[in-house]
């Protein structure tokens, strides 16, 4: 319960985060279909530090790994009952004990689910960007270095911001 002396917290936008995760999965699936139709049978699946391909696989094998991961991880991250049924001792969140002692388990899990769904959606988008990178390489002889760095940097920055938001949201009022 929130006492009158404590500032009112903004509720997490858990639903908006779920919409983001679902939209990201759909975008990833769209890019997967595009990749399946457009990519040659053999594609580069690993690149050296200079951006040159140094390992090749079939597009079927690549999608056989990417589709379960690009859909499965965001789905796993988005299903609340999975996380709510875990023993609370396995969940490591900022100020967890503070919120549990005040009977705010629902708020704690709302924050967790917002975070998990955002990260899940970001993972789906990262997998989609990797398909674009691989497809770009399939059409040209070399790949600019920024093509691999930018999606990764965006993923890391956005995930860092999600961690910061979770931390700020769960910081106890003073």
From TrEMBL:
The UniProt record lists the keyword Thylakoid: no
Domain DUF1648: 25-65
Transmembrane region(s): 15-37, 62-83, 115-134, 146-167
Pfam short name (any one): DUF1648
Matching InterPro entries: DUF1648
UniProt keyword terms in alphabetical order: Membrane, Transmembrane, Transmembrane helix
Record's keyword annotation contains Transmembrane: yes
The protein's name: DUF1648 domain-containing protein
């Amino acid at each position: 319960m929130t006492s009158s002396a404590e500032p009112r917290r903004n509720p997490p936008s858990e639903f908006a985060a779920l919409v983001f995760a679902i939209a990201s999965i759909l975008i990833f699936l769209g890019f997967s279909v595009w990749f399946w139709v457009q990519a040659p049978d053999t594609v580069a699946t690993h690149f050296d530090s200079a951006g040159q391909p140094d390992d090749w696989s079939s597009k079927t094998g690549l999608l056989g790994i990417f589709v379960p991961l690009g859909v499965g991880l965001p789905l796993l991250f988005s299903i609340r009952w999975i996380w709510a049924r875990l023993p609370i001792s396995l969940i490591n969140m900022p100020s967890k004990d503070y919120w549990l002692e005040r009977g705010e388990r629902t708020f704690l899990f709302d924050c967790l689910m917002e975070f998990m769904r955002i990260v899940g959606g970001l993972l789906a988008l990262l997998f989609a960007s990797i398909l674009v990178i691989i497809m770009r390489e399939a059409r040209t002889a070399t790949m600019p270095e920024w093509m691999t760095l930018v999606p990764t940097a965006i993923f890391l920055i956005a995930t860092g911001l999600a961690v910061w938001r979770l931390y700020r949201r769960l910081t106890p009022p003073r």
